[in-house]
What does this fold into?
Amino acid sequence: MEDEKELSFRLGDYDFQLPPELIAQFPAPNREDSRLLVLDRARNSVEHSRFRSIGKFFDRGDLLVVNDTRVVRARLTCRKQSGGRAELLVLDPYKSPEDGARQGYTCLVKASKRARAGQVLCLEDGTRAEIASPLGNGKALVRFPEGEAIFDILDRLGEVPLPPYIVRRPGCDAPVDDASCYQTEYARKPGAVAAPTAGLHFSRPLLEELAAAGVETAAVTLHVGYGTFAPLRCEDIREHKMHSEFFEVSAEAAEAVNRAKRDGRRVVAVGTTVVRTLEYIHALRGKIDACSGSCDHYIYPGYRFGVIDRLVTNFHLPGSSLILLVSAFAGRTAILSAYAEAVRERYRFYSYGDAMLIL
It folds into this structure.
């Protein structure tokens, strides 16, 4: 938790200068080749390593909790009946088929004019989607043809929705298989429109190496939404309204976490999505139960953690809810100092960038 004497609720106190060339536009050639900055809270020290060596910072019995959501091809290119180009980003593809057929799916609609009820959009193969109801802020409920699952439509016609800070030059940059690279090795449950990026560094051999060393693994699900990229607008961070995301925790995962806590073993979260999921349930129930629902848990400095002991994470945007979370976990001064060190050492930032381990 943030030391009371350095506690700040001013958004500007979570800013830092980042040279644009340090924003990673491409993944590392091999997942575990990323660099790893290790921040030790107890020693107030920083160590530079490689992600492939992360195992030396774990002990037998540590519980590694990952997010097994799978990114879907949620971005659809389409045409209006007038011939103009439009684009849909399906934000809740995990919605039940029954609710999707009745209500429509929530989409970001990118077009020259505002979406209107009854407007028809033609996808690239002629499939017709209809605006059921505009929602404001560029969003609308969109109905797709009945009888075909939304995941089938997205798999056939969709593109992976990369973060807005990944900007490549068509025809100039080497092609990347983002459908594979922007996906964790353990992704199982489709529904996310953004990757839980801390997990992108784990290769299958590295996971097997950790298991052989006695590190246990459990998986929870939180379907990462587009709101993860939304900047804070309130100068007082306490006034921010956190976006909601669907989560699910199985009985097996809940028992693994509860057992680790009872045994005095460390719970290591892979990514801020795992932190928010487990801390949300613990805040409501005092322990981890099997459950599902909508998580809007907002963690900022001053928060008292009830579950997480260590955190694997990427380097986050200045003034974002994510940097507030890691500042709550490690302390604002320690995080900003570590980020300054990462900039000096030319670490790669954001989704396809390097990683941090907070001990």
Summary: The chain is about 20% helix and 25% strand. The first strand starts at residue 35 and ends at 40.
